TrEMBL record:
This is Transposase and inactivated derivatives. SMART domains: Y1_Tnp. One of its GO terms (biological process) is DNA transposition. One of its GO terms (molecular function) is sequence-specific DNA binding. Residues 9-130 form the Transposase IS200-like domain. Pfam families: Y1_Tnp. It comes from the Bacteria. It comes from uncultured Sulfurovum sp.
Length: 148
């Protein structure tokens, strides 16, 4: 596997997509645990959530970390705390897999450094249309689990 190198640019925002393992639709059903996992992560890392949309099996968000190279730690904290809230130890995901138990999250996540206002708007528009794309709402309905 090729080594992936993340881009850390001071003062930039990051568009992030986090997906559950095998697209298990557990996020909306456990929205309180997910919200608490974000609150818990903010105890240790300083960042703004500029925009977010939570779908049953994945999250899209734009975050602006105060310390740029901490955004991977922020994502890890959110995933870890959500797993704990569901009484599943995310550090045991390999052992869980060997025992035939599914992990909560995909191992990796998608990350894109937002470079300018046009790029930012493109990401926001994608996030706004995502619940429609997945058939969760129609064009005239507002998705409940979004900041947009």
């Amino acid at each position: 596997m090729a080594a992936y190198k993340r881009l850390f640019l001071e003062g930039h925002s990051y568009y992030i997509t986090i997906v559950t393992h095998r697209r298990n639709p557990i996020l909306v059903d456990n929205i309180d645990a997910l919200r608490e996992s974000f609150r818990e992560s903010k105890k240790y890392y300083r960042y703004n959530i500029d925009a977010i949309v939570v779908l049953p099996d994945h999250i899209h968000m734009i975050i602006t970390p105060q310390v740029t190279n901490e955004y991977p730690k922020i994502i890890r904290a959110i995933k870890y705390n959500f797993s704990i809230k569901l009484n599943i130890d995310s550090e045991q995901s390999v052992a869980r897999h060997k025992k035939g138990m599914n992990p909560i999250w995909q191992k990796r996540y998608y990350e894109h450094t937002i470079r300018n206002e046009k790029d930012y708007i493109r990401c926001i528009e994608y996030m706004q249309k995502n619940p429609i794309k997945h058939g969760l709402i129609d064009n005239n309905t507002k998705w409940k689990y979004t900041s947009l």
